[in-house]
Amino acid sequence: TARIIDGKAFAAGLRARVGEGAAGFARAAGRKPGLAVVLVGEDPASSVYVRSKGKATLAAGMESFEHRLPADTDSATLLALVDRLNADDAVDGILVQLPLPAHIDERAVIARIDPAKDVDGFHPVNAGRLATGLDALVPCTPLGCLMLLKDAHPHLAGLEAVVIGRSNIVGKPMGQLLLRESCTVTMTHSRTRDIFAHVRQADILVAAVGIPGFVQKEWIKPGATVIDVGINRTDAGLVGDVAADAAEVAGAITPVPGGVGPMTIAVLLRNTLVAAGRRAGVAVDESAL
Ligand code: NAD
């Protein structure tokens, strides 16, 4: 049976390394790295995320600036706040919690964030920089997946990698990261025919679908490394996009919960430290993170 990839432990190590980096930054820059998180409305899940991001930011020795706006906030008010945060020197990272209420144009808000402070990596400039091989701020969840993968597989070059899902948040940047590691990448999605025939070839499988137990045990190539990004709330609790018995076939697999989930906030802190270093001209050893 598969080795279980302990994302919780890896994330704890990453948070500790970021904490040391943040302390070094503070000594050199005379201030702590700062992360601003903006929440519009009272969506309960988003509210929980924002609270845990704030706590983790403080625990890593960074400043946390929380902005909670009412659900009926108009676009102009939100854009004006983004402008203020862009101009605020104490703010190194800006995260606008998604989804935004339907009356606000999410793309316009993301595009307004200074790409140098875009710690979610959703700005088109960062997506383009990633795709063209320039230094970029990379979306937290797929970068966390890649860190777990590189830990399991120091040599990714040449491996067959299959990604299920093509969202801007997970699937697409995941494909770019695997391509950057010289994997042979197949992107699959809701319109793919015979998805199992593709998955069957995968040495590396990343599932980011949002359907509980979507990937079946029989699809998986024996010994494959499986990264399950799915977080699905069911009557049976939190489950991933990969069937639980897939662990009987895979070589290594991330559990849900305790796999990819804990990595996202840890990478957010990493991105904030990296953004702070670049903005302030303070050396941050990114390879040691
Ligand atoms: P999304 O809904 O934006 O994208 C889902 C993708 O799955 C789409 O690109 C779609 O083409 C594909 N898809 C849907 N049905 C399919 C089918 N039948 N066959 C093949 N592909 C299909 O979702 P997302 O934001 O990319 O998130 C995916 C999952 O990852 C969700 O469960 C989400 O909760 C989870 N997630 C977890 C984290 C984390 O661990 N921190 C972060 C983000 C998302």
What characteristics describe this protein?
three-stranded parallel β-sheet, Rossmann fold, alpha/beta, globular, 289 residues
What does this structure look like?
It is a single chain. The protein has 289 residues and is α/β, with parallel strands linked by helices. It has two domains: 86 residues, Leucine Dehydrogenase, chain A, domain 1 (Rossmann fold), CATH 3.40.50.10860; 123 residues, NAD(P)-binding Rossmann-like Domain (Rossmann fold), CATH 3.40.50.720. It contains nine helices and eleven strands. The strands form three sheets. It has a six-stranded parallel sheet. It is globular and about 50 Å long. The model has no long low-confidence stretch (mean pLDDT 97). The site of nicotinamide-adenine-dinucleotide has 24 residues, from α9. Nicotinamide-adenine-dinucleotide binds next to α9.
Strand segment tally: 11
CATH homologous superfamily annotation of the largest domain: NAD(P)-binding Rossmann-like Domain
Write down the overall geometry: globular
The string of secondary-structure elements, in order, is EHEHEHEHHHEHEHEEEEEH
Describe the largest sheet: 6 strands, parallel
Distance from N terminus to C terminus (CA atoms, Å) equals 30 Å
Family: Belongs to the tetrahydrofolate dehydrogenase/cyclohydrolase family.
Pfam families: THF_DHG_CYH (PF00763), THF_DHG_CYH_C (PF02882)
Organism: Sphingomonas corticis
Catalytic activity: (6R)-5,10-methenyltetrahydrofolate + H2O = (6R)-10-formyltetrahydrofolate + H(+); (6R)-5,10-methylene-5,6,7,8-tetrahydrofolate + NADP(+) = (6R)-5,10-methenyltetrahydrofolate + NADPH
